[in-house]
Amino acid sequence: MNIFSKIAAGLKKTKDSMMGRLETLMNSFTKIDEEFFEELEELLITCDIGVETSLDICDKLRAKVKEKGIKDPSEIKSELKEIIAEMLGEDKGIDTSNKPAVILVIGVNGAGKTTTIGKLAARYKNEGKSVIVAAADTFRAAAIDQLQVWAERAGADIVKHDEGSDPAAVVFDAVTAAKARGTDVVICDTAGRLHNKKNLMDELKKISRIVHQQAEGCSLETLLVLDATTGQNAVNQAKLFNETAEITGIVLTKLDGTAKGGIIISIHRELGIPVKLVGVGEKLDDLQDFHAKDFVDALFETETDFDYNYERLTDEENSEENISEKDAEENVPEITGNNDNEIFPEEENITENSEEIIPETENSEDISENEETPQKKDHGKFEFLFKEITFGKKKKGEENSDDENNSEESE
């Protein structure tokens, strides 16, 4: 599965929610009027694009409709796509040009910081770069052990102190060791902190200050990890964290598990902070670079436009047809003539034994030898199913003979 396919799959819930409602809205109106724009504003807001961003999008859309003289609501979709693409701007990746490149990872507990660090370390190791991981989350129980497991998986070195030690000291030692060893990348884990806890935010300021001092002249990134499932709350977190540390990029995790992917647009529009990485799954390669064009294409295109979906569905359909035809040719026996014994070889034994089960009637001896007895229908190997139905019942010929005998006796 290529990169675009992963983004498209990760955005499926967001796309289904937003585009499905947009299609319904366009089909509900025959003209573009103010009521249409009011409905569109409400739709965008409820898709976690945010109030300010939604109003800005609608204002730009009004201008385009007036400029181009658009009257059909079905033409709105392409214009909306163009506006969002312009709003997202150019892509900005993580800068690792000057070594040691120091990446400080911050965010609240549960957003996915440690997992993101492990995936980043594995990515850079696969690119042939040397990596040091700094275990500066010294407050959370087992956080150091968890990060060490990720570092061992990725093949990266780790700098750690005892639990409860000064996080800033861990970062200082990691950057110093990277300079001495000529390491390419240093990734620093930090304690998960709520943006409304002043003492923890002050600790983050201290770490950020030490990183800027020690990594002067090096590439420096401060990545804020946000949980996409929190919606607009993630945007509020970004605003407050940005006041404490100079955030250079956003890592948006759990994008595949939510319909609130529209917050990417809000973050770009309201904060001017680029989204650099998105998490679209749990595998190591599911941490992807964010590309605005892929995001917009995946958000607005239908499923049949995704190459990976089309190929997958086509392959499954063809394989099912081939299997069914093949099984039909192999499993259906060749029937020649009327010899049923070729199909059910055990039929003779069943029919021979079945004659003993049918009881004799009292007047069976009075039936003329020349009279033809009705032939019992042969059901082959399924004869036992019909024994219960005929057992104890007289055949039509037997009933007629009983009536004749009874009439003779009465005379």
Structure report:
The protein is 53% helix and 10% strand. It has helices at 3-10, 12-28, 34-49, 51-68, 76-88, 113-126, 143-154, 167-181, 198-214, 232-244, 263-271, 292-300, 307-331, 347-354, 383-390, 396-410, and strands at 101-106, 131-136, 157-159, 185-190, 220-227, 249-253, 275-279, 287-289. The protein contains 16 helices and eight strands. The chain has 411 residues and is an alpha/beta fold.
Share of β-strand residues = 5-15%
Order of helices and strands: HHHHHEHEHEHEHEHEHEEHHHHH
Structural class: alpha/beta
Taking all Cα atoms into account, the compactness measure Rg is 38 Å
* Rounded average pLDDT: 76
Shape: elongated
Q: Helix segment count?
A: 16
How far the N terminus sits from the C terminus, by CA atoms, comes to 94 Å
- Share of helix, binned: 40-55%
Number of strands: 8
Note poorly predicted spans.
Answer: 303-374, 388-396, 407-411
Largest sheet: 8 strands, mixed
